[in-house]
Design goal:
Distance between the termini of chain A: 60 Å
Oligomer: heterodimer
Order of helices and strands of chain A: HHEHEHEEEHHEEEEEEEHEE
CATH architecture of chain B: 3-Layer(aba) Sandwich
Strand content of chain A: 15-25%
CATH topology of the largest domain in chain A: Rossmann fold
CATH architecture of the largest domain in chain A: 3-Layer(aba) Sandwich
Helix content of chain A: 25-40%
Radius of gyration of chain A: 20 Å
Largest sheet of chain B: 7 strands, mixed
Strand order of the largest sheet of chain B: 1-9-8-5-4-2-3
Structural class of chain A: alpha/beta
Number of domains of chain A: 2
Strand order of the largest sheet of chain A: 1-9-8-5-4-2-3
CATH topology of chain B: Rossmann fold
Number of helices of chain B: 5
CATH class of chain B: Alpha Beta
CATH superfamily of chain B: Bacterial phosphonate metabolism protein PhnH
Largest sheet of chain A: 7 strands, mixed
Number of domains of chain B: 1
Shape of chain A: globular
Shape of chain B: globular
Order of helices and strands of chain B: HEHEHEEHEEEHEEE
């Protein structure tokens, strides 16, 4: 062993920002996360030039995957042009030379805060979800050592209790986002605060999903063709948001997840949450060449 | 062009380890599919995954020397989180592979071994990553290994297996149910 074998030439910055040892640790944990779908794997969560809680977990997974031929799309609640999404996307391309895109069909890596695009993801695409709170048991068990034991025992009864109490109090399941879901029949995960509308998109999907929480230092994964079943009672079926009949006031599309825009007269208008789908629909209507891929929902129903 | 505006380029090491990891990631995500590694053999896999934070077991002295240069500690089999083994004989010791526990599934080992694809024992795979079922044929693995694996991998505890054949790799995570045909 010589000094030369232990050192390497000077570089202004590691490719993809993270240094090699950070990437190796993430790789090891990402493989374990794939091997045990839905099970939270601890990782070191290095410093990145962004505050914890703003998507650092997703950022580290994306940085590990990036190479010069990658095409990255970053969305924040469905929008490509929010400050958070635009900043992360430009950082990713700056440190890796990867191409930026808004188009779900073009992207190889999609990093997302709290939405899954409406267009179906393909087998060669990786979805990276930013997770604020990875622990589905936290509302019922604040002690994380006890929660770990409950995961080990598949002791999830208290999660049904949450849903039961919501039904008793309100007459229906009130869990709007981060709906607890059983992965591969063994581990309950929180699918990050995606709306209920998006949970069926993870079930037996073509694509690979990583969910990573940088502040909480845990990551987990949903491999392709893995069962993701929302927790339900046998007599209370899982229901997604009632958006099927809503029409986007800008693009005219119907049957997708909508943002509600309150109006001065007390009413509301709706617009597509997946903003680039709306942009493509508008450009199509104007006669431009914008291809919309097959979507998970058609006319408000999963297809 | 200043260092702040220059588009960074990966060096050969980064390109190689990134491509190796991508092959491993898709191999484990779609058990039974054959993925292409950038270079043949297990050394590239060790290079992409191992460093001073790891404890490795290796029964090939040449590869063990290579692994030592990555910084991993060479330890006896039960203590190793990454095992580079021959699976064609010596089944008794394989029962010592670390499988973690239901409490800490991440402490289950990653096992890398060589096999020949497309001939020999036929296996039927089901589980996450496989839409219905997949069939593969593997040669160069002791007949009793699959029964031993089934006994050791009590999900979510277990070990994850990468089999290489030249520059090709097949991943068999612990979540895959293997039926010997």
């Amino acid at each position: 062993m010589t000094i030369a074998t232990l050192t390497k030439p000077w570089e202004a910055m590691s490719y993809g920002f993270l240094d090699a040892s950070a990437k190796r640790e993430l790789r090891r944990k990402m493989l374990k996360a794939i091997a045990v779908p839905g099970c939270q794997m601890p990782y070191a969560s290095r410093e990145v030039p962004m505050a914890r809680g703003w998507g650092t977990g997703g950022l580290q997974v994306t940085l590990t995957l990036l190479r010069p031929s990658s095409v990255v799309k970053v969305i924040d609640q469905g929008a490509d042009d929010s400050v958070n999404a635009a900043s992360i996307r430009s950082f990713l391309s700056k440190v890796s030379g990867a191409r930026e895109t808004w188009d779900t069909l073009e992207a190889t890596i999609l990093q997302s805060r709290h939405r899954i695009p409406e267009e179906r993801l393909r087998a060669d695409q990786v979805l990276v979800l930013q997770v604020p709170n990875p622990e589905p048991l936290r509302p019922v068990e604040p002690n994380m050592s006890v929660a770990r034991q409950m995961h080990a025992d598949a002791d999830y009864g208290r999660l049904w209790l949450i849903l039961y109490e919501q039904i008793v109090r309100s007459g229906r399941v009130m869990q709007g986002a981060a709906y607890p879901s059983l992965v591969n029949g063994r581990h309950v995960m929180t699918p990050s605060p995606i709306p209920r509308w998006d949970v069926p998109k993870l079930h037996m999907a073509q694509h690979l999903t990583f969910l990573s929480a940088g502040r909480e230092k845990r990551l987990y994964a949903v491999p392709p063709f893995t069962r993701v079943e929302p927790l339900v009672f046998s007599d209370v079926p899982f229901q997604v948001e009632d958006h099927a009949a809503l029409t986007c006031h800008r693009s005219g599309l119907t049957g997708y997840f909508m943002n509600e825009i309150p109006q001065g007269d007390g009413g509301s208008q709706f617009e597509l949450s997946d903003s680039n789908l709306g942009i493509k629909a508008i450009r199509q209507a104007e006669g431009a060449d914008a291809r919309i891929g097959p979507t998970w929902y058609e006319n408000g129903k999963t297809s | 062009m200043s260092f702040l505006t220059a588009v960074p380029l990966p060096d050969a090491f980064e390109t190689r380890t990134n491509a190796t990891f991508e092959a491993l990631m898709w191999a484990l995500s779609r058990p039974g599919t054959v993925q292409d590694l950038p270079a043949p053999g297990s050394a590239g896999i060790a290079e992409a995954l191992l460093d001073r934070e790891c404890r490795a077991f290796c029964d090939d002295p040449a590869l063990a020397d290579r692994i030592a240069t990555f910084g991993a500690a060479l330890v006896p089999l039960p203590l190793a989180d990454h095992c580079f083994l021959a699976l064609d004989a010596g089944l008794d010791r394989l029962a010592q592979i670390a499988v973690g526990s239901a409490l800490y599934p991440d402490t289950g080992a990653t096992v890398v071994a060589q096999a020949r694809f497309g001939t020999g024992q036929r296996l039927r795979l089901t589980g996450p990553g496989i839409e219905t079922l997949a069939e593969i044929a593997l040669d160069g693995i002791a007949p009793g290994f699959w029964a031993l694996r089934a006994a050791l991998c009590r999900y979510p505890a277990g070990f994850d297996l990468f089999l290489t054949c030249g520059a090709q790799v097949i991943g068999l995570p612990r979540s895959t149910t293997i039926e010997v045909l």
